[in-house]
C-alpha cells in the first residue's frame, strides 16, 4: 500500500513535465517507462524510511465544527480539564462538564499540521460548562435540579421519613444508576425488595413480616410515581441543596381539593383559611354566590398546597377496645313509684380488634375492620324501678320535717301578731322532709314565705313548709312520709336560715307541737 502511494505521488509530478513534452510521443513513452521503473525501485528501497515519516494528527471539532488540527490530543484534553477545574472553583461540591460536544477525528499525514495554540484559543472562547445534575420533573413541569443521586436520595428520604413509621423508610435507596440511566427503587411502587414479604400467607413465618414498635404489621408502602428523574447538564446556579429540594418537595404545588364545611363556617372564613379571595373561591364553585348559605357537611372546592410526593402505607394493627355494658331496668315492688335503685353495677368488657389502616401524608384515609375477638364479656348494669304505689292518704301520724334542729319560735302571739306555726333551725343537714303521705298542692314562690310547699294529706290535714332555698317536688306529685321535698333556706320574709312549719286540720291552723 505504501509503495503504491509513492508511485502515485511520483506520477503526479511527472505529469507536469509531460504537459511540456506532449507533442513528442517518443520522449513521453520513455519518460513514462522510466518513471514507472523508478517508482518500483523507490518503493522497494525506501519504503521503511518513508513509513517513518508518517504522523498521526487529530482534527478537533466543537459541536461538529472544525476548529483546528493537533498532534497531541492529550494537550487539548488537559486544557479542557484545567478550564473545568477553574470553573468548578467557583462552586462547592459541583461537578462540571463542557456544554459543547468535543470530538476528534484522527488522520495519518506526511506533513503534520500542529495548531494546538490556535485550537486552545478557540476553545477558551467557545467553552462553557454545565453542572452534571439530576432533574426532577412532574407532568412536564421541572421541579428542580440537584447535583447528584446522593442528594436526590437524601432529600426524598428526609421527606418520606416524615410520613412513614419510624424505621420503615430509613436508608432506602430511592434512585440508582443503571446503564447510564436513573432507575427508581421498587419502593416507588411497593416495599423495597428486602421488605416485600410483609404480606405473607398464614403458612409463612412471622419473622418475614415487618413489625413496627406498636405491633402493627406493614402490608404495603409506596410513593407517587408521577415524578421523573433524568441525568442532565444545567446552569450551576440552578442546583439546589438537599435542604432546598426537601422544602420544595414538601411545599409542592397548589391544586384543587375538597373542603367539608364545619360548624360556624361561612364562605368568607373558608376563603381566608385557604388564603383565597372570595372571588377566587366563587370561581372554583360557580354554583355559589357571595350570599350563599352553606350547611355543615356541605362540600366546596378550594385551592391548597399539595406536596409533590405523596407517601402512603398500609398496616394491619391489633388493638384492645372496651365493650360498653347495657343498662337493664327491672321492676321492683319493694320500691315506690318514682324511686330507682342500682342493683348491680355495670362493667365494660374487652375485645381485640384487628384493623387494616391506610395512611397518606400522616392522614388516615381508610380504616377497615378485619376481625374482632371478645376476650371479656361486659356485665350489665341492673337498675330497679319502683312499682309500689305511694298512698296519697296520710297516716295521721306526723314525722319530724327536718333532720334534727331546735325550735327557735313556737306557735302563738309574736311581734304584735299571731305566729301560725313553728320555726326550726340549727340543723346539720338542711334537707326538708314530708311529715306524712300526701299530694303536693302548692310548690312555688310566695311573697311572704318565699319558696313554699303545701301537702294535702287527704285525711283532713295539710302541712306547710316555708322559706326553702330550693324545691324538689312539683304540684300533683304523691309523696310519702319522710321523702325529701326541698332544702332549708332563708327566702321571703326571713331573719335567717330556718324552716317555718304549719299544720292545718280541716282548714284551721293547729299547733304542730300537738303531734310531737
UniProtKB/TrEMBL annotation:
Domain G5: 308-389
SUPFAM superfamilies listed in its UniProt record: Duplicated hybrid motif, LysM domain
InterPro entries: Cell_wall_metabolism_enzyme, Dup_hybrid_motif, G5_dom, LysM, LysM_dom_sf, M23ase_b-sheet_dom
Domain LysM: 257-302
GO molecular function: metalloendopeptidase activity
Keyword tags: Signal
Keyword set includes Signal: yes
Pfam family, one: LysM
Domain of life of the source: Bacteria
Protein's name in the database: M23 family metallopeptidase
Organism name: Filobacillus milosensis
Amino acid at each position: 500500500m505504501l509503495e503504491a502511494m509513492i508511485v502515485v505521488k511520483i506520477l503526479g509530478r511527472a505529469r507536469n513535465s509531460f504537459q511540456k513534452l506532449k507533442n513528442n510521443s517518443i520522449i513521453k513513452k520513455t519518460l513514462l517507462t522510466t518513471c514507472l521503473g523508478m517508482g518500483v525501485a523507490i518503493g522497494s528501497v525506501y519504503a521503511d524510511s518513508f513509513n517513518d515519516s508518517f504522523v498521526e494528527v487529530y482534527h478537533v471539532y466543537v459541536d461538529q465544527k472544525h476548529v483546528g488540527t493537533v498532534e497531541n490530543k492529550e494537550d487539548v484534553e488537559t486544557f479542557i480539564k484545567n478550564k473545568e477545574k477553574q470553573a468548578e472553583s467557583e462552586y462547592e461540591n459541583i461537578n462540571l462538564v463542557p456544554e459543547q460536544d468535543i470530538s476528534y477525528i484522527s488522520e495519518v499525514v506526511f506533513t503534520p499540521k500542529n495548531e494546538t495554540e490556535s485550537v486552545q484559543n478557540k476553545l477558551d472562547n467557545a467553552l462553557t460548562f454545565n453542572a452534571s445534575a439530576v432533574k426532577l420533573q412532574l407532568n412536564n413541569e421541572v421541579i428542580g435540579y440537584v447535583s447528584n443521586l446522593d442528594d436526590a436520595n437524601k432529600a426524598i428520604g428526609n421527606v418520606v421519613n416524615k410520613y412513614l413509621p419510624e424505621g420503615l423508610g430509613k436508608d432506602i435507596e430511592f434512585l440508582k444508576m443503571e446503564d447510564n440511566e436513573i432507575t427508581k427503587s421498587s419502593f416507588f411502587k411497593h416495599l423495597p425488595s428486602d421488605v416485600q414479604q410483609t404480606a405473607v400467607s398464614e403458612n409463612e413465618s412471622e419473622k418475614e413480616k415487618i413489625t413496627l414498635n406498636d405491633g402493627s404489621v406493614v402490608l404495603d408502602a409506596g410513593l407517587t410515581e408521577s415524578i421523573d428523574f433524568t441525568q442532565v447538564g444545567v446552569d450551576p446556579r440552578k442546583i439546589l441543596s438537599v435542604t432546598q429540594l426537601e422544602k420544595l418537595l414538601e411545599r409542592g404545588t397548589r391544586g384543587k381539593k375538597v373542603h367539608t364545611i364545619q360548624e360556624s363556617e361561612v364562605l368568607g372564613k373558608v376563603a381566608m383559611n385557604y388564603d383565597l379571595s372570595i372571588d377566587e373561591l366563587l370561581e372554583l364553585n360557580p354554583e355559589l354566590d357571595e350570599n350563599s348559605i352553606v350547611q355543615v357537611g356541605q362540600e366546596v372546592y378550594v385551592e391548597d398546597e399539595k406536596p409533590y410526593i405523596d407517601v402512603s402505607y398500609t398496616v394491619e394493627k391489633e388493638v384492645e377496645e372496651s365493650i360498653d355494658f347495657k343498662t337493664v331496668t327491672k321492676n321492683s315492688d319493694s320500691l315506690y313509684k318514682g324511686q330507682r335503685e342500682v342493683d348491680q353495677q355495670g362493667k365494660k368488657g374487652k375485645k381485640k380488634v384487628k384493623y387494616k389502616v391506610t395512611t397518606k401524608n400522616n392522614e388516615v384515609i381508610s380504616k377497615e375492620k378485619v376481625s374482632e375477638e371478645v376476650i371479656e364479656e361486659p356485665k350489665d348494669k341492673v337498675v330497679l324501678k319502683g312499682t309500689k304505689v305511694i298512698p296519697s292518704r296520710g297516716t295521721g301520724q306526723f314525722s319530724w320535717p327536718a333532720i334534727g334542729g331546735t325550735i327557735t319560735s313556737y306557735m302563738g302571739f309574736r311581734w304584735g301578731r299571731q305566729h301560725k306555726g313553728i320555726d326550726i333551725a340549727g340543723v346539720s343537714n338542711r334537707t326538708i322532709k314530708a311529715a306524712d303521705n300526701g299530694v303536693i298542692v302548692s310548690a312555688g314562690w310566695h311573697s311572704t314565705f318565699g319558696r313554699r310547699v303545701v301537702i294535702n294529706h287527704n285525711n283532713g290535714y295539710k302541712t306547710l313548709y316555708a322559706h326553702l332555698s330550693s324545691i324538689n317536688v312539683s304540684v300533683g306529685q304523691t309523696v310519702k312520709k319522710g321523702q325529701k321535698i326541698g332544702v332549708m333556706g332563708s327566702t321571703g320574709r326571713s331573719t335567717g336560715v330556718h324552716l317555718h312549719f304549719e299544720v292545718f286540720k280541716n282548714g284551721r291552723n293547729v299547733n304542730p307541737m300537738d303531734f310531737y
